[in-house]
Hints:
Elements: H1 11-20, H2 25-39, E1 42-45, H3 49-58, E2 62-67, H4 74-84, E3 95-99, H5 108-120, E4 123-125, H6 129-134, H7 141-163, E5 167-169, H8 190-199, E6 204-212, E7 232-235, E8 239-240, H9 246-265
Parallel strand pairs: 1-7, 2-5, 2-6, 3-4, 3-5
Antiparallel strand pairs: 6-7, 6-8
Helix pairs in contact: 1-7, 2-4, 7-8
Amino acid sequence: MRRPRVQLDHHESVYEYYRHHEQSMAFARFAGAVLARVYKPTITCDDGAEDAISEALAGGARVVISPNHTTADDQYVIVAMAQKLRALQPIRGRAFIPAEPSLFSRSGMGGKLLRRSVDGLGAIPTFRLEDLRRKGIEITDEIEERYRQAIVRCSDTQVAKLVAGHSMAGFWEGTRNRVRYAEVQPLRKGIAHTAIAASEHVPLVLLPVGFSYGGEPEDYKRPHLPGRHEPRVHVATPIPVATDDPDELIRLLHPEIQRCVDVVMA
């Protein structure tokens, strides 16, 4: 199937494509090695966290990497983290991450190369009304209904990929934290619903992660990465998904992400 245009009007064909799309294992590992050398994340873990991750993966569990979200580079740091942390290396080439549609629809040769790269890294476009508003598009009832349909298809696609054997990384805050970068924002329920739906078919664990790039709030608006600010990462012990209540899942996860952020900020 040919790569579809990533537009809200075409969401049916977009998610049909990504439901079946498989990353190139060779490209994913090559890109992971490159990004690990470029970003140079310093990674720490809770005592026993790496063993717990390895045991979960060996037992057939899918991992949902769950960090705070402060910069547009966070997704690349996740790839670098999976490359450097031995316990996460088995998910290279078998993990996906929701990403903003603009990464898939830029023009010119550079846009085509970017599209192939993010596809190779396992990105799946996720439509958001705030992206449409930023483009000056009026949010009519028709667009809202199309958006709701796209969100349902997106979640169904993510659940199908988790059940099929992929792991996932996702930003539960929904949008980047541009002001209180040391304080994890309230978590949204979208990924919670996805994780719970997948856990009805396969074992699944959430992996709380904290990111820090140092500096002050102004640095998080244009962080100049990679280069001046190198990421610090802390990984917590994975949390098994053993509830069908998204609010309970959020109550378990939010303080653990905040604790990880506190560790890397200290």
